[in-house]
């Protein structure tokens, strides 16, 4: 993990943090050059108590989004672990202590227990394929028959793993996924402040179309997030803006994307 610090700003000026931090994947290999997928940069503002990602997009996955088969496949490979500093960046500072509290199903006297059997605990995981932290948030009503659900927060990778090739794209319930040529499922690489959306004429569909254009034009080789809006191919952009793309679960292979660009 790399932290970036600022120098002392003159009294008459406010500190400035650039929202566009140029980088190449090789610039962010922190230890092992075979693990480029661990690339991560933190922005810290001690005077405000703020610590956040400068590059990787934060993904908040609501309970109703967890029912898709792709999410369940991803969830099934997560490894439970003790909380660490990366997990702390994914929650409000006041909620950090809850990362260390057991679930009420594990300890009825947990500090996160509510009215005996209710719960507002957190649970921490990591994704063994990409090394990124995941925090699950439990919401359970006391008693029986009430709400008992989990939502999740994580970071999107900046790119697929070294030597992986983009093979297939999926979307469903507002989540976006890539599958590699080796069959590994990944949250679609995404850059901070360049969120993906579908079904309307706006920045989200443009960002998604630009990324899909990039992987299609490079035979799935260039998977780094952050493609520019103006690079989006008109046919792919038309699809991401369409209502058809906003219905149900959609799947496009690399060859489907390339066929759009050739038509």
- How many helices? 5
Number of strands: 14
Radius of gyration: 20 Å
Strand order of the largest sheet: 4-10-9-8-5
Structural class: alpha+beta
Sheet with the most strands?
5 strands, antiparallel
The end-to-end span amounts to 44 Å
Helix content: 10-25%
Could you tell me the strand content as a percent range?
15-25%
Q: Whole-number average pLDDT?
A: 84
- Tell me the series of helices and strands, N- to C-terminal: EEEEHEHEEEEEEEEHHEH
Approximate shape: elongated
List segments where confidence is low: pLDDT < 50 over at least 5 consecutive residues. 1-21, 29-37
Q: What would you note in describing this structure?
A:
With 263 residues, the chain is α+β, with helices and mostly antiparallel strands. 17% of the residues lie in helices and 24% in strands. It is built from five helices and 14 strands. It has helices at 69-77, 85-88, 203-217, 234-241, 254-262, and strands at residues 2-4, 41-45, 50-53, 58-61, 79-80, 113-114, 118-119, 122-126, 133-140, 148-155, 166-172, 175-180, 185-187, 250-253. Strands 4-10-9-8-5 form a five-stranded antiparallel β-sheet, with no helix packed on it. Strands 13-12-11-14 form a four-stranded antiparallel β-sheet. A hairpin with a 7-residue loop joins strand 9 (133-140) and strand 10. The longest helix has 15 residues, at 203-217. The chain starts with a strand and ends with a helix. 32% of the residues are buried. The model is unreliable at 1-21 and 29-37 (pLDDT under 50).
